[in-house]
Amino acid sequence: MKNLRITLLLCLVTTLAFCNVSTKEKDALIALFNATQGNQWTNTWNLEAPVSTWYGVTIDDDHVVALDLSFNNLNGELPHQLGDLVNLESLILFRNKISGNLPKTISALTQLKNLNVAFNNIDGTMPASIGQLARLEKLQLYMNRFEGEIPQSIGLLKKLQVLELYNNNFSGNIPSEIGALVNLKELELNSNLFTGKIPRSIKNLVQLKKLNLYDNKLFGNIPAEFGKLVLLEELMLSDNLLFGNIPSELENLSKLQVLMLNNNDLKGDFAALGEAFPNMTHFEFKNLNEEKNTAVADTN
Predict the structure, then answer these.
(1) What distance in Å separates the CA atoms of residue 14 and residue 54, rounded to the nearest whole number?
(2) How confident is the chain (300 residues) per 10-residue block, as mean pLDDT?
(3) pLDDT score recorded for residue 107
(4) Most CB within 10 Å of its CB: which of 98, 223, 291, 293?
(5) What is the pTM of this model?
(6) Phi and psi of 60, rounded to 5°?
(7) Torsion sign, CA atoms 33, 37, 40, 46
């Protein structure tokens, strides 16, 4: 009887130690390990040890709630089983060698607040189902090979504060639905292949501090409505096909520190514009076909 109790106790201890997450969640982590050459990771996992000891895995109430494998030499494609980690609130795979598409099953991670797969080799389009991640506060996909248009469903991410998609191959128009992201503080779409006009709906993003649209193929006027973005500290529109007069409404942006308009075909009193901002530290306004690049720094 005594030996039986000891055996049962050992089994209980073993169960608590090794089965601290569901089999489905553990299998999803193992699928990620196998798909991205886990044995070659900088910080690898001992699959025989408890999941709670695995590098970068955070467990709360027997669920995997965060996964941070930044700078960890993941090499391969993300498996569809990633969508089984339905309790994830943060998924950070920054600066690895991940390739292939972002799996559509990512839409099952409805608890996600932070999604960062930046600085990888991910290609394909952004899934339209991204709009199902209604709790997202940060979406960082920059420095990859994404292509195609930003899906209109982006406008469903009402809690989004940071949207960083720069240095990809996104194309088409910037969707007007972005104007629905009223909590956005940083919008960085630079260094892509966007065409068309800058959507006037951006005027709704009154919490914006950083707006970077440079190095695209955007044309038309700078929307006068930008003057409503009074919290802006950084506005970068260089290297596009913008033309027309610089709207005087920009002078309402009293917090502006960085303004870059160069390599467009804009008109206006650039010198007076640079002097209009009390906090300006960097101002570039070289137009197309001009030989000299004029910059004003430390204008206070």
Answers:
(1) 17
(2) 42 45 97 98 98 98 98 98 98 98 96 98 96 98 98 98 98 98 98 98 97 98 96 97 94 94 90 80 74 43
(3) 96
(4) 98
(5) 0.90
(6) -140, 125
(7) positive
Amino acid making up residue 167: N
Longest dimension (CA), the chain: 93
3-state secondary structure of 260: strand
Cα(113)–Cα(134) distance, integer angstroms: 9
Do residues 49 and 19 touch, judged by C-beta distance below 8 A?
no
- DSSP calls for 201-223: GGGG-TT-SEEE--SS--EEPPP
On whether the CB atoms of residues 132 and 155 are closer than 8 A, the answer is: no
Closest listed residue to residue 238, CA positions, set 283, 185, 291, 182 = 283
Looking at the chain, how many residues does it have? 300
Domains and CATH numbers, the chain: 157-166+182-300 (3.80.10.10)
Distance of CA 156 to the CA centre of its chain: 15
Q: Which residues contact 104 (CB under 8 A, 6 or more apart)?
A: 80, 127, 129
